[in-house]
Amino acid sequence: MTTVLAVCEQRDGSLRKVSAEVVTGARRIADALGAEVEALVLGSGPASGSDQLGGFGADRVVTLTGDGFGKYAPEGYAKAVADRAKAGATVVVCAASAQGKDLAPRIAAKLGTGLAADVTDVMVEGGALMAIRPVYAGKALLKVKLTGKPAVLSLRPNVFTPVQRPKAGTASTAAANVPAGRVTVKEIKAAEAGALDVAEAPIVISGGRGLKEPANFKILEDLAHAFGGRAAVGASRAVVDAGWRPHADQVGQTGKTVSPTLYIAIGISGAIQHLAGMRTSKVIVAINKDKDAPIFKVADYGVVGDLFEIVPALTAAVKSHA
To answer: How far, in Å, are 203, 266, 285, 297 from residue 322 at the CA level?
Structure first.
């Protein structure tokens, strides 16, 4: 039977949330092709959470261990995944995360095949694998037919909602004799303890120049805390360029692309650069004093008014229902 290879991500020995989404997307493809799903985890040892991947649709969970896999090493990772794919995979599925955006093209290059990146939907038509991906800053959707073998694609985070399945799956661990390569990651500077990555958070609250000064982002942070650890604070390019927030918080074409369940844009006009990074959010709420702001054209709910009055009231309402 053919195999769909789901490339999972781990950090500090624990699987990242996006891994369950990758396996879910791989399962959808495998069901349409009549194939099996193999979840592949690379690390210095067994990763916490890998035993749950079977519940999301993995028929097999394979952990490849090596001294150079403790932290993401692009050359070693790409060779290990490509070698595994050559053993019989017809499709390789990665996440379009920061790591996946670097890894997926390397895998495709080693396999001599094409890549469909930042995919928001997949299907099989007439036996051919088709992928949908946004283009032109999200203004249009491109339908791509993947003809290479194996096909390589990366899935946009927060789009493929993990689905629990009763199947347990099998698990195995093997040592990988793959050198890390010329590049070695010495250190990863993590975000503030407990802070969610905007690309993975189910709720994103972003602020723009309407907040007037960096200290006023405290209003957004209070609202994020009211959601009980499920919300991350993002920012527009303008405030990041001004030094108000770190680049890791930037949502937009030159920042991060997000697809949360709820996106709240506060004091953001809605330039096309910003819309490209958040327009696939499931529910969009905009708060702006300018009733003609472009953000209202994509918002499901819009509030015209003073954010310094509206946001604290919203925070109090969220807390009252917590």
So the answer is: 15, 21, 19, 30
Give dist(CA 176, CA 64) in Å, integer.
Answer: 6
Average pLDDT score over residue span 269-281? 92
- Dig out the tokens for 255 from the structure: 């920042």
CA–CA separation, 52 and 45 (whole Å): 16
Q: Cβ distance 135 to 141 under 8 Å?
A: yes
Q: Which residue segments constitute the domains of the chain, with CATH numbers given?
A: 3-175 (3.40.50.620), 203-320 (3.40.50.1220)
Helices first, then strands: H and E counts in the chain: 7, 17
The amino acid at residue 30 is A
Helix axes 98-111, 74-85, angle to 10 degrees: 50
179 has pLDDT over 80: no
pLDDT the model gives residue 183? 80
Residue 40, C-beta contacts closer than 8 angstroms, at least 6 positions apart: 5, 6, 7, 8, 62, 64, 81, 84
Across residues 213-240, what is the average pLDDT? 95
Instruction: Report whether 307 contacts 291 (CB < 8 A).
Output: no
Q: Which amino acid is at 29?
A: I
Q: How far is CA 54 from the centre of its chain?
A: 20
Q: In what order do the strands lie in the sheet with 231-235?
A: 231-235, 203-207, 262-266, 283-288, 301-304
